[in-house]
Amino acid sequence: MRQKLKEKMLWVFLFLVVPVLIFGNFFARATNNENTHKHIITVYLAGDSTVSDYSISLAPRAGWGQVLNRFFDDKIVVKNEASPGRSTKSFIDEGGLKSILDQMEKGDYLFIQFGHNDEKKEDPTRYTEPYSTYKSYLKQYIDGARAKQAIPVLVTPVERRHFYEDGSARDTHGEYPAAMKELGMEENVPVIDLTAKSKALFEKVGPEETKNIFLWLDAGENVNYPDGVQDNTHFQEAGAEKTARLVLEGIEESKLVPLCNHILK
Predict the structure, then answer these.
(1) Residue 196 parent element (H or E)
(2) C-alpha distances in Å from residue 240, one per residue of 17, 49, 65, 192, 217
(3) What pLDDT does residue 223 have?
(4) Alpha-carbon span 245 to 265, nearest angstrom
(5) Residue 39: predicted pLDDT
(6) In the 8-state DSSP scheme, what is residue 263?
(7) Order of strands across the sheet with 229-236?
(8) In the sheet that 76-80 helps form, which strands lie side by side, from edge to edge?
């Protein structure tokens, strides 16, 4: 009698308790994976050479997007899709925006900084006109991000290193920054005015010290640039970090929640 009772209890355990343990563990893992995924936010960067990543063979050249991830906690992943020489137009024509949108998920961010190459009238594959085609191409980025329930953020182009004789910094992007800000107002999209922020920084630092921000190296100073370099557009790593900090400042000013909650203090 007792033996039969033990056998019945064993069968009850096998048919009722074991499946609960197995499937309960499975669903716990699935829920945990889902929650982990939900808490990861990806920041996609679309832009030109001032944003791009660079190989070690070009060091200390660096784009601000290359170092941006250093300033966030582990809940933020920065995917820098920026590419040298691209404009709003050519980035789309070459499939860069589609590649981002194919990866993008709800709650992600898309930061968009173009202007340097949109200005090149001599190149019809890249040139856009500030208040017409430049804005219309930028709107494709905005619409694409919103269709994926992501958050688009416009970033006006960072200034080049050009000064007047009195030490004040020149405006180097014409009407493009104003056109981008106008679009931001029309579409209710946050705009980080990196043009104004970088100009203020360069004026504060001055013509000589900005050489430490941009890629200025003497001959023999770096093995990657044996003849030296005087580049007034691209940054060395220290300058990329300073520029990234300006972008972070803009994130906080724009109150981009939850992104600004994950900036390392």
Answers:
(1) helix 194-205
(2) 58, 11, 8, 16, 15
(3) 97
(4) 12
(5) 80
(6) B
(7) 61-62, 229-236, 214-217
(8) 76-80, 41-47, 109-113, 151-155, 191-192
